[in-house]
Design goal:
The complex is a heterotrimer of chains A (321), B (389) and C (353).
Chain A: H1 14-37, H2 40-57, H3 59-62, E1 96-97, E2 101-102, H4 103-139, H5 141-155, H6 159-172, H7 177-205, H8 208-215, H9 220-256, H10 268-279, H11 286-320
Antiparallel strand pairs in A: 1-2
Helix pairs in contact in A: 2-4, 2-11, 4-5, 4-7, 4-9, 4-11, 5-7, 6-7, 7-9, 8-9, 9-10, 9-11, 10-11
Chain B: E1 9-22, E2 25-38, E3 42-46, H1 53-60, E4 68-79, E5 82-85, H2 91-97, E6 102-105, H3 109-112, H4 119-130, H5 132-148, H6 152-170, H7 175-180, H8 190-207, H9 213-216, H10 226-238, E7 244-248, H11 256-273, E8 276-281, H12 284-290, E9 293-298, E10 301-307, H13 308-313, H14 318-325, E11 372-375, E12 378-380
Parallel strand pairs in B: 3-8, 3-9, 6-7, 7-8
Antiparallel strand pairs in B: 1-2, 1-4, 4-5, 9-10, 10-12, 11-12
Chain C: E1 3-18, E2 23-39, E3 43-47, H1 54-61, E4 69-74, H2 78-90, H3 95-104, H4 111-114, E5 121-124, H5 128-131, H6 138-149, H7 154-167, H8 184-196, E6 202-206, H9 214-231, E7 234-239, H10 242-248, E8 251-256, E9 259-265, H11 266-271, H12 276-284, H13 324-328, E10 334-335, E11 341-342
Parallel strand pairs in C: 3-7, 3-8, 5-6, 6-7
Antiparallel strand pairs in C: 1-2, 1-4, 8-9, 9-11, 10-11
The chains are: A mainly alpha (321), B alpha/beta (389), C alpha/beta (353).
């Protein structure tokens, strides 16, 4: 016999209930971390992401803001509006770039900014993607066709070009370029997520337990939220992680092209934008493009490695189940 | 063909040990399996899921899927008066044996067939691989016949084909043949031998009672039903008239009426070809219908070997008795052997069945029982029969 | 005996799409005009080979699939059934008929009204690995029927879940675990617990023991029998394993290509099958007695595709008793006494008029 029936011992409090519900999930997370520890690249990814996260969280401590908007890089009164960059010095650890913008401040707050826009964009595209993807996958038919045609339209264009077009149009209409950039990246991002989620929904929809849920009297909404969503999350996590770096890179690209952050903003892309004119002069002003470049690389690399690691970890985990 | 086979055991598995090295530990899947397959008989290998019967049959072909590794033992293959230890042969030699001298059929027929090739292609492939000489000889005869009544132009072509085929017969790997098979128009000479192979395939299909074989030979596996597909697989397995056929639950996925047909077919073909069959299954009914002798396995050990009538009339090992009792009988409650199969990562030291056995003695958890012959041809591995009566 | 469910001329077809515009070019007649009753407290076994439509029948009866025709009555008073039949014959387009059908016939009900019936009818699937949501805890899986239909709240849910688990032989310590942590037999028990937790009256068991080990099979089958006695359930046991069906069912129906060809009390049917297909089917079962081997295969040929079933009696191409009439007319299910029904002209001694 598998087990003897025991006297009913229901959890005494909601907290205890919560603990018992979380227990198996905690075991899973521990398992994931154990597997990550096994590969040096995965560890590297985890370290890089954590390092970026710490910088982002502690930005106000590392580089105290001086102006009304912490993202605006303060100028050093001593240097004033000196045009040429100054090399690294005790007051400016990474030096300054054109118009005496402090690179140290810019890169630190740039990390925070990268996280901020990353989370905003991912959040928005995920929400849109989930809603539309679920509807398209679950109901199929006409709804599916309509939604997929819209995604096809957007996916027909090269992403960055389309984003540039959006930003240009919106700033003509009076939008702030930063908000415009955010919105455009969301607009070019959501079709990918819709496709992905729709694919997952289609896969999960045919499983027996969905039918069993219907037999138990579940409404469509309950099935979508309670059954399909948790089962599609694994592949979603991997894509989101890999995408995080990509999205920040796209935002940096837009800023680099002048279509993103406004002047003086702490954004890596903007910093590189400010440094273009000095790139042609060889290594004379090496710090103006190297430093933001290194920050970008470490950020995107970290997320990519973490995404790869998660993909390896979560896939066999899923298969083991 | 009959003169090549001797009256002894075709296969003797002696003390086969096999482990699986997994994440959760070392699974001691086979723990000293000892079996023998007599020439010309159908031996049933019975056991529940996880007892190691499939692994044993695969090991006979030296197909051990990693993370499995054979730790010890020998598998003697006695043929043409000589004995070969199949586990010690090289991979290249084993490849020559597989399909030609020992073939295997599996549970899911449509998974064993390649979905992008027709049935005729696949059966023909077996002929082309293993019986190419016969095919070439038949082709040469056919060309000679064609030559006799051909016009001048065709004569010229046929003579060149004849030349190529005779060269192929002598040395199939010669540079001439290899290059001729690659040059665009010249390589059409191969069509002849492929037609020959197709003819043989149709013959095999007829042998397996497949209706309208001329049409079926050009069908793809997904167009066939389960029963037909399994017949095609059996046709492929028997194309080379192997000494031994291993059948790993071939009828489990089939309907019961089709199963009855296939079981009778296997028996018929076995008699006709004189092969020996190792029939792996978990269904005692199938065993009673088909097999001459039965070996019962539990958790990696052979616990009983007997003639099929003796096994059903007088099962000796408690596990066999439990299996026979658990056959559903109307009007009675369903009976099963209490407990579950022990974990093979940490198997019990002595008899692996002792914790579920109602006759367990004191010695059972500590000492592993060996297979002993209790009656004529009836062997058991149980302390009940070795500790006096 | 009280009739729990009455199925009349149930049809379920699956369209085969093909061509450039994916039009319906053919239909798989999975269930083709099936009529039978299910009596309260019995265990009705449905047997047949692959492609006969038994699983489709089960799922259609509890409306997991939508039928293409026919009626499904659940505990509908006899007068209403008669009224519906009368109206159908005489005034098929009347509003009264539509109203009655929407209210009482499961086949015509709207999904919101249908949901009220869900608690009476449950199903246990064949493969416990795929029928349980791998991302849900056992307690949530078993609680689902209660929560989804709002049958209970809060503490009552937990009590009922625990009771259901205990009835199937599991315990409180299994609540907070995932299905993959259990063995196949235990998972199937969880599925059974989920089926009985809303106190249903009718449970469809769709090959519940096919995916588990032989030893676990017996335990599960005993569990089903105990639960039936304990909770007064009515079962529909779908299986291709004829020996198991013989032991657990009180009545058995044999299906072939979407039609019921014979039905009778279990003992009567297994002792005395009348329909040639049923005879061949029972004769094909491998008998665990080596002294009683078969000399001939009881049935030759293969089951034809359900897309293009043979005209007339579906079985006629393979039937040893095939007569002329069998090729053109479909035999109806005829009562030959003692509740034994057969659909065969040869057996019921059909005489051409």
């Amino acid at each position: 016999m598998e087990s003897k029936p025991q006297a009913a011992k229901l959890p005494k409090s909601r907290f205890e209930n919560f603990k018992r519900v979380m227990q198996p999930r905690i075991k899973e997370i521990r398992f994931i971390f154990k597997r990550i520890r096994e590969s040096p690249l995965s560890i590297a990814g985890l370290i890089l992401v954590s390092y970026n996260l710490i910088i982002a969280l502690f930005a106000p401590v590392l580089a105290p803001p001086k102006l009304y908007n912490p993202y605006l890089i303060p100028r050093d009164p001593e240097l004033g509006f000196k045009i040429d960059p100054s090399p690294p010095s005790p007051t400016h650890p990474f030096g300054t770039t054109r118009l005496s913008i402090d690179l140290y401040y810019g890169c630190i707050w740039g990390t925070r900014f990268a996280f901020q826009i990353g989370l905003e964009i991912i959040g928005a595209t995920l929400v849109i993607g989930l809603v539309l993807g679920m509807l398209a996958g679950y109901y199929g038919g006409l709804i599916d066709e309509i939604i997929m045609r819209f995604t096809d339209i957007i996916l027909a264009f090269p992403g960055l070009i389309l984003a540039m077009a959006f930003v240009a149009t919106l700033s003509r209409a009076g939008w702030n370029t930063l908000d415009a950039a955010l919105l455009s990246i969301i607009l070019i991002g959501w079709p990918g997520y819709v496709r992905l989620i729709r694919g997952e929904v289609l896969r999960v929809k045919t499983e027996d337990y969905i039918e069993a849920a219907k037999a138990s009297g579940a409404t469509d909404l309950r099935i979508m939220l309670r059954h399909i969503l948790p089962n599609s999350i694994y592949s979603l996590i991997v894509v989101v992680t890999l995408d995080f770096g990509g999205i920040v890179l796209t935002a940096a690209a837009l800023s680099f092209l002048g279509l993103g952050a406004p002047p003086g903003y702490a954004d890596w892309g903007k910093l590189i934008y400010d440094s273009i004119s000095y790139a042609g002069q060889g290594f004379k002003y090496w710090w103006v493009y190297t430093v933001p470049g290194i920050f970008i690389v470490l950020f995107v690399l970290g997320w990519n490695l973490l995404g790869d690691a998660l993909r390896d970890v979560l896939d066999p985990l899923y298969r083991r189940k | 063909m009959e003169s090549e086979r001797s009256e002894e055991n075709l296969i003797q598995i002696k003390n086969l040990y096999l482990n699986f090295y997994t994440y959760d530990g070392v699974v001691k899947a086979l723990d000293g399996v000892t079996l023998n397959l007599v020439n010309g008989e159908i031996l049933g290998l019975v056991g529940e899921t996880g007892c190691g019967k499939s692994v044993t049959s695969l090991s006979t072909l030296s197909i051990v899927i990693p993370p499995g590794k054979i730790q010890g033992g020998q598998i003697w293959f006695n043929v043409k008066g000589k004995s070969y230890d199949l586990l010690s042969l090289s991979e290249a030699t084993m490849r020559r044996i597989r399909g030609r001298y020992i073939s295997m059929i599996f549970q899911e027929p449509r998974a064993a067939l390649n979905p992008v090739y027709t049935v005729g292609n696949q059966i023909g492939e077996v002929f082309l691989l293993h019986r190419k000489e016969e095919l070439i000889k038949s082709t040469i005869d056919q060309i000679k016949k064609d030559l006799a009544r051909a016009s001048n132009l065709k004569r010229w072509i046929y003579r060149r084909e004849l030349f190529l085929y005779e060269k192929m017969l002598k040395n199939p790997k010669s540079f001439l043949i290899k290059s001729a098979s690659k040059i665009p128009i010249i390589r059409r000479f191969q069509n002849r031998v492929q037609n020959e192979a197709r003819k043989r395939a149709i013959e095999m299909l007829k042998l397996l009672n497949i209706p309208d074989p001329g049409r079926v030979v050009d069908m793809y596996p997904h167009e066939l039903s389960g029963g037909m597909a399994q017949r095609v697989v059996i046709a492929m397995a028997l194309s080379c008239n192997p000494f031994m056929l291993i059948a790993d639950e071939p009828t489990t996925n089939l309907d019961v009426t089709v199963q009855a047909q296939i079981l009778l077919l296997i028996k018929e073909l076995q008699k006709k070809f004189g092969s020996s069959v190792l029939y792996v299954t978990h269904d005692l009914g199938v065993v009673a219908e088909t097999c001459d002798r039965v070996a019962v396995m539990y958790a990696g050990n052979v616990v009983e070997i007997a003639d099929v009538i003796a096994l059903f009339k007088k099962p000796l090992h408690p596990y066999t008795q439990g299996l026979l009792e658990s056959i559903p009988r109307p009007g009675e409650k369903f009976v099963s052997i209490p407990g579950t199969v022990p974990s093979l990562v940490n198997p019990p030291k002595g008899c692996r069945f002792h914790d579920r056995c109602k006759y367990a003695l004191e010695i059972c958890p500590n000492v592993k029982p060996q297979l002993v012959e209790v009656e004529n041809g009836h062997m058991v591995a149980c302390h009940l029969y070795t500790e006096g009566k | 005996m009280e009739v729990l469910m009455s199925i009349e001329n149930l049809k379920k077809y699956f369209p085969v799409l093909g061509g450039v515009f994916r039009r319906r070019i053919a239909e798989v007649k999975a269930v083709d005009s099936v009529t039978f009753n299910i009596f309260k407290g019995e265990c009705l076994g449905i047997v047949g080979e692959s492609g006969c439509g038994k699983t489709t029948l089960g799922k259609t009866i509890i409306r997991l699939l939508s039928p293409n025709g026919g009626h499904i009555f659940y505990k509908t008073p006899q007068e209403l059934v008669e009224a519906i039949k009368y109206l159908e014959k005489h005034d098929p387009k009347s509003h009264a008929l539509k109203h009655l059908l929407r209210k009482y016939d499961l086949a015509y009900m709207h999904s919101s009204h249908l949901r009220k019936f869900r608690k009476y009818m449950q199903i246990v699937y064949q493969d416990p690995t795929t029928s349980l949501d791998p991302r849900m805890l056992v307690k949530d899986i078993v609680a689902e029927p209660l929560v989804a239909q709002g049958l209970a709240r809060g503490l009552e849910v937990e009590e009922r879940v625990l009771t259901a688990l205990e009835k199937v032989g599991l315990g409180e310590k299994h609540l907070y675990r995932y299905p993959h942590e259990f063995s196949g037999g235990q998972r199937q028990r969880i599925a059974v617990a989920r089926a009985i937790v809303p106190n249903p009256e009718f449970v469809i068991l769709d090959e519940p023991t096919s995916s588990v080990d032989v030893s676990v099979r017996a335990q599960l089958l005993n569990l089903f029998q105990d639960l039936q006695k304990d909770l007064g359930l009515t079962y529909m046991f779908i299986s291709h394993d004829l020996s198991v069906v013989e032991c657990i069912s009180s009545r058995v129906a044999v299906m072939y290509l979407g039609k019921i060809v014979e039905k009778a009390e279990t003992e009567e049917l297994y002792k005395n099958p009348l329909h040639p297909y049923a005879q061949a089917l029972f004769a094909s079962i491998p008998v665990p007695d080596p002294t009683k081997r078969k000399k001939r295969a009881p049935l030759s040929g293969e089951v034809p595709s359900p897309v293009n079933p043979p005209p007339g009696c579906r079985f006629h191409p393979r039937c040893p008793l095939c007569m002329d009439v069998c090729r053109s007319k479909e035999p109806p299910l005829v009562d030959v006494g003692r509740g034994h029904h057969v659909a065969c002209f040869a057996v019921t001694k059909y005489e051409t008029q």
